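Newbie here. two chains, one complex. Structure please?
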Amino acid sequence: MTAAVEFLNVSRHFGSIRAVDRLDLMIAEGTFFAMLGPSGSGKTTCLRLISGFEQPTGGVIRIFGQDCSAVPPNRRNVNTVFQDYALFPHMNVRDNVAYGLMVRGVDKRTRLARADELLGLVKLDDYGKRKPGELSGGQRQRVALARALINEPRVLLLDEPLGALDLKLREAMQDELKALQQRLGITFVFVTHDQSEALSMADQVAVFSDGKIAQIGTPAEIYDKPRTRFVADFVGSSNVLSSDMAAHFGGPARPASLRPESVRIVDDGARVHGHVTTLRYLGSGTRVVVTVPGGEISVFLGKEALLPEKGSAVGLTWDSQAMHVMEQD
Amino acid sequence: MTLAADLTPREAKPNGAVLPSRGLGDRVSAVFWRHPNVLLVTLLALPLLWLVVVYLGSLAALLLQSFYSIDEFSGMIRREFTLSTYAELLRPANMDIIIRTVSMSAAVTLGAVIIAFPIAYFAARYARGHWKALFYLGVMLPLWSSYLVKVYAWKLILAREGIITWVTDGIGASAVLNGILALPVIGGSSLSTSYIGTWLVFLYVWLPYMILPMQASLERVPQSMLEASADLGASRWQTLRTVIFPLALPGIIAGSIFTFSLTMGDYIIPQIVGSSRRFIGQAVYQLQGTAGNIPLAAAFAVVPIVIMLIYLTIARRKGAFDAL
């Protein structure tokens, strides 16, 4: 498998701020790759380094093996779906979509026919004549997608493309994006701060923290085997047990993560006892926070489970393999 | 203890859900809140009165005068509807004045667009903080001094004994200057007595009116739109032509309304700097003053209005305001 995008020791510093710091990264061709992290973690800068809107202060960026250091954005075979969609307000939807072909000198009939095809692909067949201002957020998002795909890029970059949509639409678009990526076979690089979005859509997830990648792996690896406290915490609010607690529960004296859904409330055979401090209803279940000696442990209880009362004493247990020892703190 | 109790002294703490009125201001503002139209009428009554009576009223009076005519024998105004005054505009001497003025206005506008664009673009896209303040200061500063002072200063700069002649002589480029002055129509015996000189002074005095609206419209073009254009493969020139220019067009049109109409109405600059041939403003000035031909003066004054209306209609047809 070839590398669609390769970062070799890449840095992007803004003065004393290290937005991206000595980063190595390999994105395989045809993958749906998510860059996940809180704001300011360097994920968007990374995306802009691929598109060419930022230039690295150090290191080498290769796109399909070619060094892109001296290649301006308009000559990279990479397209972007912008966070604010950046549709041209003075052009109608068809002209917006056809723009990439227009600047390449493709004649009007061919490019508009192609634009119509792409509008069909994103299910906006009858919207060609409208102006972007007359569309809803979700429709604009589709137009931006069609516009970015018209040049048949080898890598499609998506900068928080679903951030401005409401929950229902976001979920529908997640499925559509995923299906589209599988159909087209293009490498998608997707920036998001929403961990559930990254986990549900991506083949590979890179978790960013302070300009570096904290962990890279499949969604299951990231979720079940977080390498650092940061990853455990950011991806799915895991319980992070201190090294003392981990040792007390029979593990090595190293910090460990424990998913709330792996913890059970039991009457007999509890590993630890504590008091319920908070009950938080989440719709799909309830998150129960239990204060135990040395810290807190969150427990996720499904709908069918019997809820303990606030302040009551409970016993907790979990399977030994549910406790994942982390490599770093 | 609640937060509110911490922040408010006990005696000032209201008991009910409704806070007591603090006087007339609160009561008036309550009326405005209940009836937003009352607020609108209160705010607009005086300016609207001014606009309708003084402004549009005098414009209507002007229009009316232009349909009267003058009795050439007695010099009295005949208050009867006629188009003969407008027919007078078509006389070759008067048409010359109109064509001269419109050409100058167009040249000034074009020059202003070309010079203002890079300045406005820099201010809108790159200038931040102190640089932005410096930009506004630089653009506005010339407006702080008297218009007459500036025009006379330009007369000295452009005069045969002025600094431009001195510099071109000094660097041995007087042949270039003489070559420019030898050009037909726009040339003359010196810059200060040629159309080039008039054009330069117009350009100088009206430039801020082009830069400011242009900068405002360029500022509203988001960075991501320029990036999207480049991302899709457009060169810088293509982005300028297909994205920046159309989006800045409403501002450019706004600026050109200023430069165009201000040039068309001015009667002082062509009198001080330039050849002695007359512009519309000068013609109006002389006709209503010494000649006492108010109807013809009014007809002349209607010309710029009509031209501006034609100009805006064309701009609208061409989609100049689509980005608004």
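Moderator note: The mean pLDDT of chain A is 91. The domain at 249-325 of chain A is CATH 2.40.50.140 (OB fold (Dihydrolipoamide Acetyltransferase, E2P)). Thread marked as resolved.
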